């Protein structure tokens, strides 16, 4: 009879009874504190169930408010009763009504017998604590907290600010070094009775009664005063979520709990029938002697907290619809946008596909329809090529495409013929790589059969759109990787420039670009541009016209270099 | 929000509550078993019209999930729906011959029933072709979810409509009574949903899926809304104002996280496109008792005659909630 339990119960009495009886039947005395808020009739009914069991007793009751001094008070009542009634108890284990032993009590007892002098209590100095939800660590011990954090948050915060501002502080009593930790501990009789029978206990209690959340600091600080050997960890597996409330375990956590090798877990959903059935059955096989290893469970729950806090970048859904600036990643993956290349080269798309792989779409924002790769009318996620649907929510069209094709590199073309609504979005997205040859849209016009007036009008329109596009590429919010060349500069050295872009996309490759797709014939391009200029459409985006071939120097710059 | 705007919102809520109060007279009780409702009971509310074939599976599905009591408004059924419901031990039924359209598509009636019976309970408001799927629904009953929501001080749970459809012509596989409709309508669109925040009520306005793709590709703005808040810890001052898409007070519509995180959400699998639907579309287009004078049904009636197959090679076959979570359609949030 070296191990005794204190159990704080306020609800789910049938489960508390099950666990208390389990411990008692294994030779461990249990002292139960029932919350003073529980109605007398309910309490009596609960207590009377244990009439026949001398190992299960009840302590004096007090009304408990979570996170308040009353919780420490209740623990004190129960601890005093346990120590007085069961003199053989060497270790006292504090548990709640929603705790469940994960390993047979005999294993816990063996474990404690191997560490007879050790106090298992998570006890961390305030400088090292990072897990508090309210952000109050050292100040828990030096400020006053007359207002409820839950119900009077504004007053609470205001009063904290007020005290900080005017330097109002409480003095920490001598001999107390502030420590914080999980409220679920397992202390030796020696340490616990030293705390409870200290000559200055009254003044200690008076001090801690006004500390913020004393159940996380009273025993944690005072154990430091008396204990000879502290292992600063809790034997109770208990995880907290972003709101600071404990994660709950359900039937489907059974394999996870089994692998954790922890002795006790909280908090268990009272209706998790299977967990209670499995873990209170001592005939099951257990791996004896393993050290508790809560790491596996940690991962699951810290992932859950991350999902709630940051979410999956690039996801827009009914669960996650970030306001502008809070996206934590506008899109979920890198993607590439090419502008102008397809006007300049024949068969640029298939060439690019061979070079960088992934999915190379055509003009996704073309006026008639979204030109998906391979001429498809639907894309991953059943994304439709309907221009109306796309233009209804143009950025979500892109984020949807990227989300549904995660793991596959996406590239598409954009040009001045296309809808431009998505441009501000992609320029502000660090996942975007934009490569543009400006003025290339004029190349097809060179061989157009339209009348010159129509060509002029078209050129003016396209140039206006491209100028707006260029303006976006120079906007202050620019986050995309951008490569822009006027047509004249690009044509002068196409290989090198393309090489730069491609190695940025695929990572540096030892292979140098040698084969470019055939460039369209630019013979007479300079004269064409001059005619446009003289017709009143000044070419502004093509660069230095003198670099282009005239009719007379033929195709000097034609083809690969 | 200023005082005036806030007061106008209150007036709006009052208006909807008054509507419900007035239309309570249209309801006649058929079978009232609401005395069986006790503390902590989870309730389901629904309006039905000639849904006899769908009901057995609907009741089975939700009983298994942990609904303790069903409250139905029968809108003048002629196929034995009312009698069937009245025979069920955990169902209370009211009936009305009045106009579905004029009662805001049944919402006035349900608001009234919820006000009288839902106070303090978790209430699920669904149509008979909507099936709630939430994270861990294969291992944890609805009660686990509502307990967790209670512990987290969350009052409402969002679940968008996910329209399901069969492979091949919609009427090729006839639906048998009692059958799981998703044996037939097993497919859905996974990644073509569109979202916008509604600044007035704070809810997300969601469109997309098969209905936008197949019937509203030319007029996306008219595509039906898919956002829903079907599960609410009801208080008598609450009121639905537009089907179960939007509620007041507005805080209940915030079932998404605007700050970058993910909130716990589910979906309502929508077993709309079954063989039953083809006949129904023609009938409802005639009757014009649905939203926008059943313009939606007219679109289906036209659309379904021509191109019958809604399925495409990118359609996703429904497996379980985990699949939906990976696809990003639902989220576990911090429920683990």
Outline of this structure?
Chain A is α/β, with parallel strands linked by helices and 561 residues long.
The tally of strands of chain B reads: 16
- Individual helix count of chain B: 9
- Percent strand of chain A equals 5-15%
Count of DSSP strands of chain A:
19
Tell me about the biggest sheet of chain B? 7 strands, mixed
- Lateral arrangement of strands in the main beta sheet of chain A: 3-2-1-4-9
Contiguous uncertain segments of 5+ residues of chain A:
554-561
Radius of gyration of chain A: 36 Å
CA(first)-CA(last) distance of chain B: 35 Å
Helix content of chain A: 25-40%
Beta strand % of chain B: 15-25%
Q: What oligomeric arrangement do these chains adopt?
A: heterodimer
Q: What is the CATH T-level topology of the largest domain in chain A? A: Rossmann fold
* The level-1 CATH class of the largest domain in chain A: Alpha Beta
What is the residue-averaged pLDDT of chain A? 88
Content-based structural category of chain B: alpha/beta
Protein name (chain B): Glycosyl transferase family 2
GO molecular function (chain B): transferase activity
Organism (chain B): Jannaschia pohangensis
Pfam families (chain B): Glyco_tranf_2_4
Describe the secondary-structure layout:
The complex is a heterodimer of chains A (561) and B (336).
Chain A: E1 3-9, H1 13-25, E2 30-34, H2 40-48, E3 56-58, H3 69-85, E4 91-96, E5 100-101, H4 105-114, E6 119-120, E7 124-125, H5 153-166, E8 179-180, E9 186-188, H6 189-196, H7 201-208, H8 218-226, E10 230-231, E11 236-237, H9 254-260, E12 264-265, H10 273-279, H11 295-309, E13 335-339, H12 341-344, H13 348-356, E14 359-363, E15 378-379, E16 383-384, H14 387-392, H15 394-404, E17 410-413, H16 423-427, E18 432-438, H17 442-446, H18 452-473, E19 481-486, H19 487-492, H20 494-506, H21 525-534
Parallel strand pairs in A: 1-2, 1-4, 2-3, 6-10, 11-12, 13-17, 13-18, 14-17, 18-19
Antiparallel strand pairs in A: 4-9, 5-12, 7-8, 15-16
Helix pairs in contact in A: 3-6, 6-8
Chain B: H1 3-23, E1 28-31, E2 43-48, H2 55-65, E3 69-74, H3 81-86, E4 91-95, H4 107-117, E5 122-125, E6 130-133, H5 142-151, E7 156-157, E8 159-163, E9 187-188, E10 193-197, E11 204-208, H6 209-215, E12 231-233, E13 239-242, E14 246-248, E15 266-270, H7 275-287, H8 291-306, E16 316-317, H9 321-327
Parallel strand pairs in B: 2-3, 2-5, 3-4, 8-15
Antiparallel strand pairs in B: 1-4, 5-12, 6-15, 7-12, 9-16, 10-11, 13-14
